[in-house]
Amino acid sequence: MTPRIRSLTPAGGIVGSTPVRRILVPAAVGVLVLGLLGTSGASAEPVHGLYEVRGATSAQDRTEIAATGAAIDHVGDESVLVTATPDDAEEIGGLGYGVEEFDVPVPLADPDPGYTGYAELVGVIDEVVAAHPDIAARSVIGRSHEGRDLLAVKISDNVDVDEDQPEVLFVHAQHAREHLTVEMAVHLMRLLTDGYGGDPRITDLVDDREIWILPNVNPDGSEYDMAGSTWRNWRKNRQPNEGSSSPGTDLNRNWAYEWGCCGGSSGNPSSITYRGPAPESAPEVRVVADFVRGRVVGGEQQITTAIDFHTYSELILWPFGHTYDDVTNGMTREEYDTHAALGEHMAEANGYTPQQSSDLYVTDGSINDWLWGDQRIVNFTYEMYPRSAAGGGFYPPSSVIERETARNEEAVLRLLDYADCPYRIIGEEAAYCG
Length: 434
Prior knowledge:
This protein has about 425 residues and is an alpha/beta fold. About 25% of the residues lie in helices and about 20% in strands. The strands form three sheets. Strands 6-7-9-8-12-15-13-14 form an eight-stranded mixed beta sheet, sandwiched between helices. The N and C termini lie far apart (about 60 Å). It comes from Nocardiopsis tropica.
């Protein structure tokens, strides 16, 4: 009987209830590489395989496995599925876990033309701004390693004025292969502009908030992933790493809060969770961090809430990821309860599973932790559709885009509702919001 595995992963992916064929590779012997993932057209880059790791039953086990540099793609009751180099997989076997070759549940296919590439995205942004010049504006906040513009779209009444209003940030596509998040940005831009003046709720929110959408913060990686004859399963950016033939930094391990602290990222450039040589060493992370720091006015951060969109697993995650504790240094009980209550409130709308990031396994250097720990912004990671690899994994068919982006409308509006004072959701507005 073919086993089935249920899976979860923070800011990286999930495979759930997917039957697979497996070949056992004893831990003492080593591992076999499944195939070439993320190497099309780039022979000098590392070979990554897909493996099932048996005997992992706790968040602590999964953290130990992730510390090898493997990316955990999903979690089962007694096993996890990882994307890893042969060296990573051999190291996992050396820890005492059984390591097995794992068939890709959904083979990599030709890049789906229904997804929005970078040039098309720029065109969509220009179209939205041209159609709604009074409430939408675009700006270039910096450039990627390869020189592509990193764009921000502001949506608000009096869009050219920096008003004293709560601000909300939406970040998309830190990980290159997570193209559905770019479609989420397109959907939000159109929802908030086309709905203005016709939908009373949207109109009030646009009037009373300043909304920032960063539609693709890793355009180099996204374009690389889409450029081959098949999807390349690429996660990182594309900057070279000195002394290594393996390019790229995992943007969501490069943020300057508890960077590299806790075994939640890799120091090996060959790893797909490579954290970079220093915090904010990735130009894309530095640009976005500078943008967020630039929203501090009169000593006060204007951004009150944020969502960082990823795929896949249908989760809503909140900080911290670098520690298993909820109440800890930098997070009081009221602050934790605010994140949890707001996460649960949003999850009621889209059917995602709400939980603290580290309930899955420890990650460090994530935007989730930085936005709260450094900037005190109440924030969440959305892991979008699908719930399992059976729905397409990182590459669901473009036919689901409209349905799955619309699915998050109410959840996002609920975050906007509480942007004036997130602590209102636990009845602590007087204590925290004056």
